[in-house]
């Protein structure tokens, strides 16, 4: 397999979540996929603003989507927040003609303005890339260091799965994409009740106690079901779970993938 895809890393993967990015790049190369980072990308905004007349905060996402369209490539994200914003923005460009028209009028003022964009780009989260493009069977074949004996709890949080009518990654109430990946890597997937509940990260600044209670409910539930560690795709979730004293380690899913594919040491050395 030899495939090039456009890649939007996002701000957090340049600062607090560098490992999430490094592991993703090396694992993709091992699986025959090159993540081609977009030039001059800008912050996605971090949160999708639902107001239809809010244009400015969505322009960076549309520019990224348009750049991928010009290359005739799908756009891949790894950060849960970036994926949520870009996927919802793309959906709005596909389904809301008035919104798309306003955005394209703004874009027409850019230097070297691109052709009007109407949602042509396919957006994949890295997990979807592994499942739908590479295939978990191929991932399993590439494993050189099976994670036998590890009991791993997959934590989805809010942003990967919701709103489900737009994200369409998995069943929002009973997802399995991360569990299937964990199994392909040779580990045991531990299901727990709070795996798709909010960790409280977005309310941490205004209500620390509620955020702490939510985070503890997630990590303690996972540990109580016998998990050795928690994996996530969300930098904010990882931070919030660790900050509030998770009784078991919290790691990015790409770290687990890198370990199984035998590229973790190379990533850690960079």
Task: Give a verbal description of the structure.
The two termini are 26 Å apart. Helix 1 runs parallel beside helix 11, helix 3 packs across helix 4 and helix 5 (126-134) packs across helix 6 (136-142). The protein has a four-stranded parallel sheet with strand order 2-1-3-4, sandwiched between helices. Strands 6-5-7-8 form a four-stranded parallel sheet, sandwiched between helices. It folds into two domains: 3-126, Up-down Bundle (Glutathione S-transferase Yfyf (Class Pi), Chain A, domain 2); 136-269, Rossmann fold (3-Layer(aba) Sandwich), CATH 3.40.50.11810. The chain is globular, with a radius of gyration of 19 Å. It has twelve helices and eight strands. By secondary structure, the chain is an alpha/beta fold.
How much is the average pLDDT?
95
Strand fraction equals 5-15%
Strands of the biggest beta sheet: in what spatial order? 2-1-3-4
Q: What is the count of distinct domains?
A: 2
Q: Which outline best applies? A: globular
Using only C-alpha atoms, the radius of gyration works out to: 19 Å
Helix content: 40-55%
Give a short account of the largest sheet: 4 strands, parallel
**CATH architecture name of the largest domain:** 3-Layer(aba) Sandwich
Q: Please give the count of helices.
A: 12
Class computed from helices, strands and strand pairing: alpha/beta
The number of distinct β-strands equals 8
Q: What is the C-level CATH assignment of the largest domain?
A: Alpha Beta
SSE order, as H and E? Answer: EHEHEHHEHHEHHEHEHEHH
Enumerate the spans where pLDDT stays under 50 for 5 or more consecutive residues: none
Ends apart, CA distance between termini? 26 Å
Give me the CATH fold name of the largest domain.
Answer: Rossmann fold
